[in-house]
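Key result, reporting period 2: structure in, sequence out.
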C-alpha cells in the first residue's frame, strides 16, 4: 500500500494545486459573506451616529434611544460573529471531507463514502456483540474500500440507552398561599459505546464465534456498566499467553477451535494493531471468517471536524498527519489478515 512519503510527493507535484483551487473556491464564498456583514455593520454605525447628531440633546428619551441602539449594534455584531465562526468551521469540515476522499482515491480507485449513511442495522446486529434490543443505534460516515481485492468497511457508531428524567418547576402563589409544582419529563441519552466499527475478512476461517473483550482496570472502572449491554455468548477461555490474557478476556463455546484461531501469530498481529491504534477494542471473530472490530473513542467525524487553518493554507504537516490516520485504518486489514 502507498505510504505517507508517496502521498507527500504526489502533493508536491500535483495535489497542492488541486487542493488550493478547491480551497480558493470556498474562500471566495466566505469573504463575499464577510464583505456583506462588514457593510451591514458600517451602515448600522452610520445610522447610529446620524441619530446622535439629529437628536443630540441630553433628554432621557434620547439617551434611552442611544442605549437601545448600542444594544442592537452589539447584538448584530455578536450574531454576525457567530455566523462567520460557524461558516469557518463548516468550510474546514467541507475541506476535510475533500481531503478524506482524495486520500482514499490516492490509495485505491475502488471505494464508497457516504457521509450520512450507516451500516444496516441487520448487518451490525449479526456481529452479536452489543444487544440492540435494549440499545439505540446511530451511525454515519460509511466507508467501503477494496485494496488488492481485499474488501472491508467501517463507519462511525453511537450506541446509547435512555432514561427518563424529571425537571421540576416550582411557583409559589402568595395570594392563595399555594405552592405549584410542574413536572417536565424528558429522555436523557446515556452513551454506551461511541467509536468506529470496522469489518473485514481474514483468510483463516473459524468454526465458532470468538470474542475478545478489553480486560484492564480502566476499562472496567470507566465502563463498568457496558457488560450489561453486551450480548455475546460463550465460556471464558484462558490462553497460554499470559500477557494476552491480561489484555483481553476471550469467550467462546469451543475452546479447542478458539485456541486454533488465536495462534501466536494472530495474537502478535493484534498486539501490533494495538500499538498502531491504541484505543481500546472489542473483537468478534465469526464462523465465516468475518471479523468485527469496535474501536472506542475513534471516529471519522472527529477527524473531519478538526480545524485545518484553511485561511492560511493547508500545511503539508496537516496533510501528512491526516494521511497517517486514514492509512492506519486501511492497514488494519493488512495487519490482521493472517495467511
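The corresponding designed sequence is given below.
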Amino acid at each position: 500500500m502507498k505510504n505517507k512519503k508517496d502521498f507527500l510527493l504526489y502533493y508536491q507535484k500535483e495535489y497542492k494545486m488541486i487542493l488550493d483551487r478547491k480551497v480558493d473556491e470556498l474562500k471566495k464564498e466566505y469573504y463575499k459573506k464577510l464583505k456583506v456583514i462588514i457593510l451591514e455593520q458600517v451602515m448600522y454605525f452610520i445610522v447610529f451616529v446620524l441619530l446622535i447628531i439629529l437628536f443630540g440633546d441630553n433628554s432621557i428619551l434620547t439617551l434611552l434611544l442611544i442605549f437601545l441602539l448600542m444594544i442592537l449594534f452589539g447584538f448584530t455584531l455578536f450574531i454576525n460573529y457567530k455566523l462567520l465562526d460557524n461558516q469557518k468551521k463548516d468550510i474546514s469540515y467541507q475541506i476535510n471531507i475533500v481531503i478524506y476522499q482524495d486520500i482514499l482515491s490516492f490509495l485505491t480507485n475502488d471505494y464508497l463514502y457516504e457521509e450520512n449513511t450507516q451500516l444496516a442495522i441487520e448487518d451490525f446486529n449479526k456481529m452479536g456483540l452489543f444487544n440492540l434490543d435494549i440499545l439505540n443505534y446511530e451511525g454515519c460516515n460509511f466507508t467501503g474500500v477494496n485494496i488488492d481485492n481485499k474488501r472491508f468497511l467501517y463507519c462511525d457508531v453511537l450506541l446509547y440507552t435512555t432514561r427518563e428524567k424529571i425537571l421540576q418547576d416550582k411557583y409559589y402563589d402568595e395570594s392563595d398561599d399555594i405552592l405549584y409544582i410542574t413536572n417536565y419529563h424528558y429522555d436523557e441519552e446515556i452513551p454506551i459505546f461511541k467509536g468506529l466499527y470496522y469489518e473485514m475478512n481474514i483468510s483463516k476461517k473459524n468454526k465458532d464465534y470468538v470474542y475478545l473483550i478489553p480486560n484492564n482496570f480502566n476499562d472496567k472502572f470507566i465502563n463498568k456498566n457496558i457488560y450489561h449491554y453486551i450480548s455475546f455468548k460463550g465460556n471464558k477461555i484462558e490462553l497460554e499467553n499470559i500477557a494476552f490474557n491480561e489484555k483481553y478476556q476471550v469467550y467462546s463455546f469451543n475452546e479447542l477451535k478458539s485456541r486454533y484461531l488465536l495462534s501466536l501469530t494472530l495474537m502478535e498481529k493484534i498486539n501490533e494493531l494495538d500499538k498502531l491504534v491504541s484505543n481500546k477494542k472489542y473483537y468478534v471473530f465469526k464462523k465465516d471468517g468475518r471479523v468485527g472490530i469496535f474501536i472506542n473513542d475513534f471516529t471519522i467525524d472527529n477527524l473531519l471536524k478538526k480545524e485545518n487553518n484553511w485561511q492560511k493554507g493547508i500545511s503539508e504537516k496537516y496533510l501528512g498527519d491526516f494521511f497517517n490516520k486514514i492509512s492506519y485504518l486501511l492497514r488494519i486489514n493488512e495487519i490482521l489478515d493472517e495467511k
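The CA atoms of residues 33 and 166 lie 43 Å apart. The chain has two domains: 4-104, 110-159+195-305. This case is discussed further under Risks and Mitigation.
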